[in-house]
Design a protein that fits this description.
The chain is built from five helices and six strands. It is an alpha/beta fold. A six-stranded mixed beta sheet has the order 1-2-6-5-3-4, sandwiched between helices. Helix 4 links the parallel strand 5 and strand 6. The protein is globular. It starts with a strand and ends with a helix.
Length: about 150
Amino acid sequence: MVYRPIHFVLSSPSDKIVPMTDQQHLEQLLGSGHPCISMQTFEEQDALQLVTAAIVETGGELLKWSVTRGLHDGLVAGGATVANTDHPAAALFFLSGLARTVNVVMLDLIPHLKDDRTMRSFRECVASFADKGSHLILIDDASDLPPAVKSV
């Protein structure tokens, strides 16, 4: 599911459509069971704040991944890093094996999906997340999403 802000157009002044905030829209996507949500933006910090606020509001665990740090707690500044998860395929493999429901933000993953092992790990992780009700949230400035990302 690719997330893009929605803009409503009122057909008449008497319409009472109240547009959702970006946070409300993200919370709705999280509540709808989408295992993978892609946020295409150059405003990474704003997107991270939005995701954090939505997870705090809806409750749940948040993990964050970057290629420089690996997986770590996304709600605690300076949280401990999960060992050996700096490679995206390793992080996705680790996430696929979790028995608990989690929300995971992955920063700049899209370019790494050109690697066959990383793409396979991504597909398996999304399938695992769909079964568990977990969410993989991709924050990236890539404008061209691979078909495997567009299809989930």
